[in-house]
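Protocol step 4 of 6: record predicted structures for both targets in the notebook before any analysis. Target 1:
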Amino acid sequence: MEKFAFIIHPLSLKNVENFEKGAVGRPKELVEKILEWTPPFKISNITGIKSKTGKEVEGFFVACPLMPAQFKTLSQDFVVNKVVKSCELAEKLEAKIIGLGAFTAMVGNGGKDIAEKINTAVTTGNTYTTTTAIQATKKAVELMEIELNKATLAVIGATGSIGSACAQVMAPEVGRLELVGRNESELKTISSKIEKQTSFKPVVSTDISKSVVSADVIITVTGAIDCVINPEDIKSGAVVCDVARPRDVSKLVGELRNDVLVIDGGIVRVPGEKVNFNYNFGPPPGMSEGCVAETIILALEERFEDYTLGKDITIEMVEEMAQLAEKHGFEVAALRRYETAISDEQIEEIKKNVVCHKTV
């Protein structure tokens, strides 16, 4: 049976405390220093995956012990070396393809430098994450009865691989497209690329709050450590697909805004009657985020080659991954918000609140 591995890391101090009780009550600075010294380790076996073609694979979660801020504050040489050592452990476990999760996918030139330093195939999983984010967003838009071809779509983090790909795929389907990020020059480059492909000219902006407040649909996927979208930012009746890890949308939005639909991006059902990740990494049992699913799909296909690296996700790659996912029986799960399923009743309540409260 072919094997894969996926590299994860703690997203918060709470994640560390849940896994290691000895960290409870310790100063964050001390915990971070201990994580620097801690070598990568295997967290769990992933079992029970069976494609609808009959093919089976198994895998592992491997921990790269660093928190989000450390990926940005520590030297890049140190961080890249830590990720490489995590991959080397995966190689010892006989993985033939390795997925890079969360911030491990952002360092080393979007995984390219990591791939050059190891002998095993590598992917960030960002292509299928893009696919599932688009599918989930369209489903939410339909439920909220938004006319997509007349709507304004804001892509936050549009200079990243996922954001750029989402913008390229959805540009022909929306009324107005706004690309939002920190680097105006890079935003203009992406805007020009989309205009050449589709004759559709997006607007660019470096002001997140200003862009969000006028958008009917938002896909957000930044590499920020803290939330970037707050309750007062969002237009009444809007759909927000939060693909980022850690999340871009403040939890206060869920508490204070009962007139907007926020969904988690990239949650899919993995095929197999007895799928078990043997570790609570966020999604409910039998489900995963798109990046994990892409690694599994490539293993099922025996595509032991570097796949999604750097920022260049093409429309063709997004379409290919959608086809492979369907072939093996992966599908977008029911819409979820803050890791919890959203009921039809909740969506109807949100729609009623939009009618009653046009302004915040």
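Target 2:
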Amino acid sequence: MRQITIVVAAALLAAVVACAGAIAFMRLGPGESRDAGRVAETRTSAPSGQEREPGQEQAPEPRPTVTVTEPRTVVPDEPGRSAADADFLAMIAADGITAPDGWAIEAGRATCGQDYASAREYLTDGGLYDHHVQTFLDDWMITHGGC
């Protein structure tokens, strides 16, 4: 019985809130003097020293440009780096592993072919989280086709 009372009370409260929202919306409807067009018209101002004539449109302000930068960049002609290394760096970054590029490649080469315990020790001593070790090793194997 108590659950039914709570459900009925919640339904009534929701109806009252919805009704109050509808009343507020209708009160500020287009027939009133506070409609959006008039408010927007009073808020825009002409640049200093210029008068805006009725009906003259003001040029929109330029929107900011969003620039996306890649977290890692690989110089194509950097000695000792291959396309597989670039793919590896991209994969570990996508997996949420952050490490300096040089260290990551060095660690990949050093741990490739080692047993898991030795590779785990090397990688966690280098700062990798324990839960990233297997992902790091898998990404190396995928991008480099083995050791």
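Step 5 preliminary note on target 2. The radius of gyration is 31 Å. Residues 2-27 form the longest helix (26 residues).
Proceed to step 6 after PI sign-off.
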